[in-house]
Every structure is written in structure tokens, then in C-alpha cells.
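Need residues for this backbone.
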């Protein structure tokens, strides 16, 4: 963990880079405990032996220490798996922007973008840094909220005044960097004295960091999607732990015998008269002995309570109940599943509004690195893959109906789920098909060169219009027949 040098204490607006680093580091460390807690719940590392009685901890620690019954990961993953960025679109350009796609692919964001969404929903925030690489091309680098912190300008919720990253590598060396609109301040590799840094001008003129906040309120801070789920998860763990304990102690019927003389050892301790097992038969010579068994404890009450808690968790997190199998394991189908997942789809679309705006800011920063005028393209749109799961037949049928409304084919291809690379290939295939069709047509019969349309001229048309005189063919035939007779 990075510890600021002694004597750094920023009071009031920071004036020097060292003051900025001290202030931002304190702001970062204040939020770390909650971020670590949310990460533990997502990973399932929060499990504790929450048995009803403390004495059971020692007896069952080895049995249930690695036990997990964690639904927090399911709640997050069910949303993030539906959020996929396909491309970026500019209103003045047809289709999607090819250069923006190149920025995206060069930085491996097809894979890393999901990690940004995941961290933002788990810990409430994540960050993306945009800077020029060694080759001068824009580099997009996701950064965890455990390493980076930002400060907004007074009165603004979109413009950053400063950002800092505090990173410690695997060899324990510190990497500390501060960005403002005017300068970039970096300490030397492994240097712990923040006053011994290098100051250089910021060529972009803006803080090259984009925050990804998970649905923050106007007067509040970004919050994790697990904030309201954790208490229910703890209750489920407690109830399930009690059920496991009951299954060990009271779920099996206990047998008893009366009227049998108790035999003691030399120390006065009772000796167990029987070794109970599946293949053992209990018998006693004393005719007064009577055998019986206590009724086993039922675990159905625990199951009912866990099912109720899962229903509450489903309602609060807007995760379909069939994801938790609270309906007896039978998943809905057809229109029922679309209706059941409507809340989750609406939740995902809302997150797309926040994350989409942030990704557009990332691409604008990439254009700023290239000194491209599209750095001011505020009308840019993020193209997301459809978050709603439908059958292939339903999806294609809906697209065919849209085609009747004269929706362009490229838009229909995009709505069908094809990537921009595939759509670009489709265009080339269409050109190749048209060229092949033209070549095949050239091999067939060709119209006459003199009169390609085969339309008769004026003289031919007049001759064709004149009909030879028509006689009374019936009378002539009759006369010929009479003469022959």
C-alpha cells in the first residue's frame, strides 16, 4: 500500500503538485474499505461461519470453511454479460466510424471494456486513461478505482480539474502521476518523495481520464449494485449455515432405549451399549427394555426462508427470479421469459446511458491525441448490442417487418447482431456478387447491334399492319367438295 510522505497535508484548494497528490491520495484511501468490501462479496470471499451458536465454529470450521452460497456475482454478471459495445457512429458519416473502431481494436477493448463495466457496477466507479503510445497512436487503458481518483471542477459534474494514479507494481515500486489541464506531474520510478517529480506541459489541454460512474445521484456519490443486496446475502448465508448445522445434529433420527441397565466403566462414565450402524441389529436380553426414536428435524423451514429471501433479492436487484431457480427449477419460455426479463433489460439499458456517454468521451480523447477535428464530435453515439435475448425466429421476423418500413439494410444488419467488421465484409461481398452477375450476363445472348430494342421502323410497322384479303373460306371449300363429288 502506498503511504504519503510525512508532512503532506493539503488544506484548502491545492496549489502545488505535491498538495494535489496529498489531497487526492486521502480522497482515494477514504473510499478503499467500501470498494474492497464490495469486491469480496462479488468474488464470494466474504463468507463467514455465521452459525447460530458460536460453539459450532470450532467443530465445523474444516467442513464448511470453503463453503460458498454467493448470489452477488450472479446479479452483476447477469447485467454485464448483456452490455457489449459494437461501434461508434457519427451523424454526418454513413455507417460506423472506422477510425474509432481502429482505436478500440488496437487497445484490446473488445475484452477490456467488459472489465470496466464490471468494476463500475461492483465498486461504483472505474476509470479509463487515454494517452499517446510510443508510436504516437492513442492508447486506451482501463484503470481500477482502487488506483485512480479524480476531482471535478467546482460546480461541475462533467469537467475534471485533476486526476491522479497511485500504482504499486509487483516489485513494490511506486508509480505516481498527476494530470491537470495545464501539466502532467510524474515522480520517478520507485521515488517515495512526491516533491521530487517531473513537471511537463499537458499537450491535450484537458485531463485525459474518463470516469465511469454507476448511476450516481446529483447530490451523492456513485454506488455499487451490491449495496442493497449485501444484507440479504448475509441473511441467506446465516440461514443456510443453520440448515447445514441442523442437518448434522438433528436431521437424522436419534434412537433411545428405556428399561436397560446402565453400565459404567471404572471411572464412573456410562458405556455406550450399542454401536449403531446400517447393518447392526439392536437387541436386549432384558424383557423390560423398550426401543424408540425421536422425530428428525425438518429442514423445509430453512428452505422456505431462503426462497423468500431470494425473492426479495430478485425484486431489489431486478434480476429475473428464474435465475435463482426459486420457481422449482422450471425456467419460463416464449413470451413468459421476455416478460420476466423486462426489468433486467430496462436496468441494462439505463446503465448503457451512463457508460455510453463515457465511452464517447474516451473516443473523443483518442481523436484529440490525433489532433483530429472529431475531438469535438459531441453528437457521437455508442452502438450497443441488443441486450434483449430473443429466439432467432422472433428476431428475424421483427427485422423483416422493419425492412417493409424501408429501414436501410446496414441498419438491419447491425440490429441483427452483426459486427462492423462483418458488415464491412458484407459490402465487399455485395460488390463481388454484382460483378459476378454482370459477367454471367455478358456470356448470354446479346441484342442485335442495329436495333438493340428490336423495335420495327416506320416502314416495317406499316407493312405489318396491312392484312391480306380474307375470303369466304367456308364457301370455297364447299364448292371444291361439290366438284369432286
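Answer:
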Amino acid at each position: 500500500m502506498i503511504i504519503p510522505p510525512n508532512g503532506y497535508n493539503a488544506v484548502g484548494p491545492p496549489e502545488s503538485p505535491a498538495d494535489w497528490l496529498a489531497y487526492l491520495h486521502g480522497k482515494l484511501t477514504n473510499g478503499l474499505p467500501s470498494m474492497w468490501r464490495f469486491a469480496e462479496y462479488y468474488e464470494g470471499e466474504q463468507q463467514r461461519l455465521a452459525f447460530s451458536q458460536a460453539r459450532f465454529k470450532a467443530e465445523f470450521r474444516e467442513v464448511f470453511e470453503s463453503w460458498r452460497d454467493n448470489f452477488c456475482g450472479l446479479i452483476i454478471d447477469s447485467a454485464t454479460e448483456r452490455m457489449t459495445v459494437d461501434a461508434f457512429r457519427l451523424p454526418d458519416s454513413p455507417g460506423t466510424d472506422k477510425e474509432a473502431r481502429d482505436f478500440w481494436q488496437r487497445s484490446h477493448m473488445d475484452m477490456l471494456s467488459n472489465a470496466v463495466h464490471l468494476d463500475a457496477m461492483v465498486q461504483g466507479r472505474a476509470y479509463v486513461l487515454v494517452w499517446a503510445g510510443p508510436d504516437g497512436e492513442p492508447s486506451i487503458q482501463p484503470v481500477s478505482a482502487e488506483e485512480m481518483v479524480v476531482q471535478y471542477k467546482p460546480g461541475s459534474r462533467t469537467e475534471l480539474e485533476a486526476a491522479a494514479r497511485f500504482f504499486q507494481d509487483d516489485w513494490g515500486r511506486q508509480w505516481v502521476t498527476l494530470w491537470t489541464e495545464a501539466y502532467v506531474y510524474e515522480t520517478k520510478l520507485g521515488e517515495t518523495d512526491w516533491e521530487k517529480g517531473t513537471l511537463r506541459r499537458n499537450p491535450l489541454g484537458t485531463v485525459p481520464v474518463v470516469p465511469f460512474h454507476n448511476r450516481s445521484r446529483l447530490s451523492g456519490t456513485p454506488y455499487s449494485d451490491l449495496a442493497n443486496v449485501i444484507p440479504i446475502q448475509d441473511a441467506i448465508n446465516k440461514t443456510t449455515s443453520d440448515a447445514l448445522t441442523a442437518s448434522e445434529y438433528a436431521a437424522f433420527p436419534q434412537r433411545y432405549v428405556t428399561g436397560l441397565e446402565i453400565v459404567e466403566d471404572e471411572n464412573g462414565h456410562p458405556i455406550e451399549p450399542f454401536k449403531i450402524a446400517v447393518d447392526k441389529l439392536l437387541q436386549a436380553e432384558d424383557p423390560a427394555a423398550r426401543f424408540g426414536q425421536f422425530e428428525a428435524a425438518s429442514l423445509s423451514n430453512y428452505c422456505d426462508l431462503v426462497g423468500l429471501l431470494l425473492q426479495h433479492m430478485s425484486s431489489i436487484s431486478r434480476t429475473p427470479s428464474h435465475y435463482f431457480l426459486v420457481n422449482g427449477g422450471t425456467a419460463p419460455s416464449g413470451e413468459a421469459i421476455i416478460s420476466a426479463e423486462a426489468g433486467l433489460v430496462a436496468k441494462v439499458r439505463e446503465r448503457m446511458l451512463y457508460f455510453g456517454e463515457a465511452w464517447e468521451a474516451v473516443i473523443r480523447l483518442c481523436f484529440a491525441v490525433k489532433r483530429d477535428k472529431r475531438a469535438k464530435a459531441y453528437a457521437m453515439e455508442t452502438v450497443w448490442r441488443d441486450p434483449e435475448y430473443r429466439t432467432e425466429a422472433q428476431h428475424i421476423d421483427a427485422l423483416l417487418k422493419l425492412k417493409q418500413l424501408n429501414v436501410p439494410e446496414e441498419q438491419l444488419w447491425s440490429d441483427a447482431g452483426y459486427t462492423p467488421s462483418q458488415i464491412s465484409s458484407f459490402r465487399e461481398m455485395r460488390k463481388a456478387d454484382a460483378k459476378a452477375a454482370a459477367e454471367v450476363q455478358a456470356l448470354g445472348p446479346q441484342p442485335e447491334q442495329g436495333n438493340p430494342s428490336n423495335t420495327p421502323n416506320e416502314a416495317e410497322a406499316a407493312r405489318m399492319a396491312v392484312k391480306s384479303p380474307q375470303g369466304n373460306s367456308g364457301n370455297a371449300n364447299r364448292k371444291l367438295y361439290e366438284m369432286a363429288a
